[in-house]
Amino acid sequence: MFGNLKRKCKRSEQPEADGEGLYTRLRATALGLNPSEVGLAATDELPRAVAVVMDTVYPAGAATLVAIADGTTSLYVSPGGGTIGAGQHPAVAAATHQLLALAEATLDDMPAARDDHLPPTNSTTIRVLTYAGPYAITAPEKDFGRNRHSLSPLFHAAQEVITQIRLLGDGRSA
Question: Whole-angstrom Cα distance, residue 50 to residue 133?
């Protein structure tokens, strides 16, 4: 479902030496987000959800979407590359807002997270970071994508954020 990202991961024969390390550091920073340190506080619309971090692993790499309640939106790809700061663009900001609102609405359908490992190959983990700790759900990417999972709408909302980021790269969105 990551489209070009999936193809990019497959095209990369070897991850860039520092690309993998940068990916790992950026992902760890997102997962370790402390809301109070970055000035985030509960709102009427998002009383619990602080961020969504969605990881998908392919045979040759991983992609991670990070969408934070302050509008920060980024996409990291383990072979190296990605987009940082896409949330400043209106279409991405709108999609991020929709994703976070849906994460808030579906949070009770997710178990508390026990770890922050990447999912198995061809699987996706959707994490919702909250003020009380992370929640997460993992399933095969095709189950989310083909609406065979109760949280498929959350996956599709995240995919819409990715689409808007990709359109920026194609010069079709502002």
Answer: 10
Cα dihedral value 19, 125, 141, 143, nearest 10: 180
For residue range 56-74, list pLDDT tens digits in order.
Answer: 999 989 999 999 999 999 9
CA distance 80 to 61: 9
Name the band, by pLDDT with cuts 50, 70 and 90, for residue 8.
very low
DSSP letter at 107 equals G
Looking at the chain, how many residues does it have?
Answer: 174
Beta-strand runs (E) in 59-173:
61-68, 73-77, 82-83, 123-130, 133-140
Which residues does residue 127 pair with via DSSP β-bridges, in sequence order? 53, 136
Q: Is the pTM of this model over 0.85?
A: yes
CA distance 88 to 24: 24
The pLDDT tens digits of the residues spanning 13-49 come to 333 445 678 899 999 999 999 999 989 999 999 999 9
Nearest Cα residue to 114 out of 92, 85, 137: 137
